[in-house]
Amino acid sequence: MPAMNLLNYCIIVRCGPDQQSQALSAFEFTQALLAQGHKVERVFFYQQGVLTASSLRTPAQGELNITKMWQQLQFENKLELDVCIAAALQNGIVDKTESERYELSAHNLASGFQLAGLGQLAGATITCDRVVTFGASQ
Amino acid sequence: MSTLIVMRSTPYGNTNAKDALDIALILATFEQSPSLLYQGAGLQQLLLHSQHTTPFKHIGNILKAFPIYDIEQIYIDKASINEQNISLDRLNDLPVEYKLLDTNQVTELMHNHQHIMVF
After folding, report:
1. What is the tens place of the pLDDT at every residue in A7-55?
2. Comparing C-alpha atoms, which of A52, A122, A120, A50 is closest to residue A89?
3. How far is CA A123 from the centre of its chain?
């Protein structure tokens, strides 16, 4: 087998967890990259994608829990799962710090995910060989 | 060349236009001088004097900030102008200079960028 050129990737997830096949494609693509030894510098959840990071999601029995799948992948690979903070606040995804800042009644950012600014995405376009988007709505 | 952002959505139908502009502005802040290509329904974002009856912030205010951010690579897909039935003089008020590209030039533009994000 010829030596493979290992690259540094950034994955952007723009679809919500309910857009099942697109959400799953993003996950499986990331999983495959890691399995082949590529670097995934970060996964950036933007737009509806931030809903993936809610710890309160409770899919019906027998259905995929994409949030848990990302958490597992993050745990196994020390993956960075960045959730756009502006989109997160807009969609009701907050961590403890933001919950206190805005005096909200609860916080729900799933463990393994972290809130991040768009600057993280801008940085990734500089350092990554490939930026791959999933779930772009038209 | 770094990142090309392709604008294909109407200004207020969903958050795509605003979300794409947010990325453009942050890339410019990182001195990455992004290029913007307006295609299809995305051209409606450039009609600065559109009747603005929606409760949303007028997208044109962000366009006016382009020169401050040194966002200067603005491209418009020539074929989309006819498709969207927009007369060129409606683009006279744009606060930035733009280049009209035919289909081959659009292809070339995409080849010349490392990253492409479509909104």
Report:
1. 999 999 999 998 889 999 999 999 999 999 999 999 999 999 999 999 9
2. A50
3. 16
Please give the structure tokens belonging to residue A28: 């499986």
Q: Do A122 and B32 touch (CB under 8 A)?
A: yes
Q: Where are the domains of chain B?
A: 3-118
Are B22 and A131 within 8 A, CB to CB? no
Give A40's contacts (C-beta < 8 A, 6+ positions apart): A9, A10, A11, A30, A33, A34, A77, A79
CATH fold of the domain at A8-56+65-134: Hypothetical Protein Ychn; Chain: A, (3.40.1260)
Q: Tell me, yes or no, if A84 is annotated catalytic.
A: yes
Residues 1-60 of B with CB under 8 A from A: 2-3, 8-9, 14-16, 19, 22-23, 26-27, 29-30, 32
Q: What is the mean pLDDT of residues A95-110?
A: 98
Integer angstrom CA distances of residue A89 from A17, A108, B117 = 17, 11, 23
What is the reported pLDDT for B49? 74
May I ask the CATH class of domain B3-118? alpha beta
Instruction: Tell me which H or E stretch contains A98.
Output: helix A96-101
B118 and chain A: CB distance < 8 Å anywhere?
yes
A136 shares contact with chain B (CB less than 8 Å): yes
Could you tell me which chain B residue has the CA closest to the CA of A133?
Answer: B117
8 A C-beta contact, residue A13 and residue A26: yes
> Which of B19, B27, B118 faces A46 most closely, judged by CB atoms?
B19
